[in-house]
Design brief:
By secondary structure, the protein is mainly α. Helix content is 57%, strand content 0%. The chain is built from 14 helices and no strands. The longest helix is centred in the N-terminal third of the chain and has 23 residues. It is extended and about 90 Å long. The N and C termini lie far apart (94 Å). This is CCHC-type domain-containing protein.
């Protein structure tokens, strides 16, 4: 027998394969192929774990980005139908699957897990008593979709917080962050293209920033404001190099306005915080106005 002649088992395999292909061809031609919508296919447990692990936190400034990411996750695990009827386009186009009450309850639980993973303590308290994930969504949207005026207040406060110096900070990276936050306002979008010392608006930002810096860093920044010309990013690198070259044991003052007062003297002279809006002590006027605006 020739060595090239196929064996009996090979002939059987080829026959089975031919029969399979014929069956598939007939099925395709008949159009009797049933498909399952991808939105109904449940992800592997590991996919859900990754969504929960890397879910961004909702803040006063990021509802748009947060909600888009959350809707993508809802779509991936096939639970858009739970939000059907809400104003978002993806929810309006959701398809109702034919599922049992137990399966719907499981989807509700998965949706709540995802939402809770993207909330801080304040957000978790806000939705603690909501009966469904649909109600969770509308409650969060009502709270975090801010009016333009209130959003501007939060943005400015966020910028001022970024200007404060923390141990391990670098001027170059902090200036990049400040640029990005200030550029949210249309009239400051030019900051993202890079600016020079010739830009008056940028100089005003640096003058404000110097008030939030430690004294020795503010002094270096003010010197560059007066003497240096060029790109601000390059100047920030120069300041970082100057700070790194300073002797490690050189004393530093905590803030730009700090003095050599003893702790007791400083405490006696520190003015007590008082709100000029409600005339009560213990908080600033801005905080009071924000709370009142949210309550309306």
């Amino acid at each position: 027998m020739s060595t090239n002649e196929p064996s009996a088992s090979s002939k059987e395999t080829q026959a089975n394969f031919a029969a399979l292909m014929k069956s598939l061809t007939q099925t395709i031609e008949s159009g009797n192929i049933s498909t399952i919508p991808t939105s109904w296919i449940k992800p592997a447990p590991r996919s859900m774990d990754l969504m929960l692990k890397y879910c961004p936190k909702l803040t006063n400034l990021n509802w748009g980005a947060w909600s888009r990411n959350m809707i993508r996750n809802f779509k991936a695990i096939g639970i858009l139908y739970l939000f059907k009827g809400l104003e978002e386009e993806d929810f309006q186009n959701a398809i109702d699957p034919k599922i049992t009450h137990q399966e719907k309850a499981r989807d509700e639980a998965d949706g709540r897990r995802l939402i809770c993973a993207g909330l801080d303590d304040e957000g978790l308290k806000l939705i603690a008593n909501t009966p469904t994930v649909k109600k969770c969504w509308t409650t969060l949207r009502e709270r975090y979709v801010l009016s333009p005026r209130l959003q501007q207040i939060w943005i400015v406060d966020d910028i001022l917080q970024e200007m404060k110096w923390k141990e391990g900070d670098r001027m170059f990276s902090k200036w990049l962050n400040i640029q990005a936050k200030v550029a949210v306002f249309p009239e400051f979008e030019f900051l993202l293209d890079g600016t020079t010392t010739a830009c008056m608006k940028t100089r005003l930002i640096f003058l404000l920033w110097s008030k939030y810096l430690p004294h020795h860093i503010a002094a270096i920044l003010e010197r560059h404001l007066q003497q240096t010309q060029g790109q601000w990013l390059n100047i920030m690198l120069e300041i970082d190099n100057e700070l790194e070259s300073r002797p490690k044991n050189q004393p530093k003052t905590a803030t730009h306005s700090a003095s050599n007062q003893t702790p007791s003297d400083s405490k006696q002279q520190r003015p007590r915080i008082k709100c000029q809006f409600c005339k009560k002590a213990g908080h600033y006027e801005k905080e009071c106005r924000i709370k009142k605006a949210l309550a309306q």
